Amino acid sequence: MKICFDVSPAVHHHAGLGRYAHELLSALVATDAANTYTAFYNDPQELLPAPPLDQLPRVRVPLGAKPWRLSALISHLLNLGMDRALPRGDLFHATDHLLPRLKHARTVFTLHDLIFQIFPEYHLPLNRWFLKLALPHFLRRADAIIAVSECTKRDAMRLYHLPAEKIAVIYEGVNPHLRPESDPQKIAWVRAHYAKNRRFIFSLATIEPRKNLIRLMDAVRALHLRGFNQRLLIAGRKGWLCQDIFEHARKVGMQDKIIFLDFVPDEDLPALFAACDAFVFPSLYEGFGLPPLEAMACGAPVVASNTSSLPEILGDAALYVNPMDTANIAIGIERVLTNRELRAELRAKGIAQAAKFSWERAARETLAVYEQVAGRKRQVTNTG
């Protein structure tokens, strides 16, 4: 097969969606010698995917995000094929919640989440409008849908009445470079560089309301009032509706105890996970929840929300809290900070749990979906 794979979220550094596109296509190329892959993306500039994807044949639509999204939507509404914008191929894999209308290729659509339906107040109005209008067309016309969790599959079936057999659940993976940091000098360096040699609680998330960072800050403030002195380090790029989050730290007088790190290079993450006293992920809703799984892979004791896909993905290797209850978040963190045996148990269980998830496995299961879709195409061609 000739497979065209949308790497737009990776080119544009879109947090979890970007990591998914980069890691999955890298694993597909590494494990699949039978098919050929083309990296597709939209961008008005000559940006390149990160290695090793920069070595693939590439096709770029020279449009920014809004014009490209509008073009894709219009193609569905008017039943206009967009095949000329793409290389001739057998299959197109959409990874960015955006599917162009294609008449001469089979399509696979990855559905990461339906958070805009479940927490619409945490999406910008235009983005919410676009997804409400466009996503039903994309899901209906895709030949197959990949959901990143059973939770996401259930949401899709409930909200769009999709047949179960159209949706394959394929879990994301953990990059093998994410493992417990064994170099004490590296751990000492990140502690000095990022935490000013102070003990710290760590969180990794795009800075946006759904990640529930205001309640996390309030929980850490409550711990400080009870005598704990760990700083809170929050890594992640700015998302939408983020200003209130930054202002809240100043409002409650925690600006010297809460450090927003912005983007942190991947090579520093294992040492940060190793150095933290706890990794806390109080998100209100996740389609998968990769950061706490990556923290587990590196040996961090994880405190996570008891909602959405997180218990499905993290199993019995996390300490769960109610993300709507600030006091409960604080109690969960305190349990980890004060109980050495619990920390050791969570570290050991976390490493074992994370080992169940690999991008190589995700690639094999994705390839099976490709072959199933292509087989249906051959069957239709032969009977026609």
What does this structure look like?
The structure is a single chain. The chain is an alpha/beta fold and 384 residues long. The chain has two domains: 2-173 and 359-383, Rossmann fold, CATH 3.40.50.2000; 184-354, Rossmann fold. The protein has 15 helices and 13 strands. The strands form two sheets. It has a seven-stranded parallel β-sheet, with helices on both faces. A six-stranded parallel β-sheet has the order 10-9-8-11-12-13, with helices on both faces. Strand 12 (302-305), helix 12 and strand 13 (319-321) form a beta-alpha-beta unit. Helix 3 (65-77) crosses helix 5, helix 7 packs across helix 10 (269-275) and helix 8 crosses helix 13. It starts with a strand and ends with a helix. Residues 380-384 have low confidence and may be disordered.
